[in-house]
Amino acid sequence: MGAFFIARPIASIGERTNYSAMQQEEAEILALKALTYLAGLDEMMDRFAALSGMALGDILERAQDPEMLAGILDFYLSDEALLTEFCEAHEISAEAPAQARTALPGGDLPHWT
User: Fold this and answer.
1) Is 73 exposed, middle or buried (0-12, 13-18, 19+ CB in 10 A)?
2) Residue 70: inside a domain, yes or no?
3) Using a CB cutoff of 8 Å and minimum separation of 24, what contacts does 46-51 make?
4) CA distance linking residue 97 with residue 101, whole number of Å
5) CA 102 to CA 99: how far, in whole Å?
6) 59 with 48: CB under 8 angstroms?
7) 42 domain residue, yes or no
8) How far is CA 19 from the centre of its chain?
9) Is the pLDDT at 88 greater than 70, yes or no?
10) 37 Ramachandran zone, left/alpha/beta (phi>0; psi -120 to 50)
11) How many percent of the chain have pLDDT more than 70?
12) Quick check: 79 pLDDT over 60?
């Protein structure tokens, strides 16, 4: 599938954000970076599409939907290898995606693990 353009501006890869008190906009930016990264991994993107039940075109169409972005972060948080690879590639802490997830819809739900 390859990378794609997102109309919303995305912070540069090397830019560091303070994720300790992440706001929804910052969380969305991180999730958009995650989606862009995922789009470059054909097999993983296909896996996300299959697990979400969404066609690839629908995923791209909903790229700015906070609920879909939350799903992207959930996908990363369920795969430690993918999460680690993404965080290293973007030079962010491994905790940042989980912190971002709490700022998106459904992120305030209790964790039972």
Assistant:
1) buried
2) yes
3) 48/72, 48/75, 51/75
4) 6
5) 5
6) yes
7) yes
8) 14
9) yes
10) alpha
11) 76
12) yes
Residue 60 token pair: 């791209």
Q: In angstroms, rounded to a whole number, what is the distance separating the alpha carbons of residues 72 and 55?
A: 14
Total structural domains within the chain = 1
Write the burial class of residue 112 (CB in 10 Å: 0-12 exposed, 13-18 middle, 19+ buried): exposed
Whether 31 is covered by a domain: the verdict is: yes
Q: Residue 46 belongs to what domain range?
A: 24-102
Q: What is the pLDDT of residues 31-56, one digit of tens each?
A: 999 999 999 999 999 999 999 999 99
Could you tell me if residue 73 is inside a domain?
A: yes
Q: What whole-number distance in Å separates Cα of residue 6 and Cα of residue 78?
A: 24
Given the structure tokens 């969380």, which residue do they identify?
Answer: 27
Map 54-105 to HEC letters: CCHHHHHHCCCCHHHHHHHHHHHHCCHHHHHHHHHHCCCCCCHHHHHHHCCC
Q: Which of 13, 54, 59 is nearest to 35 (CA)?
A: 59
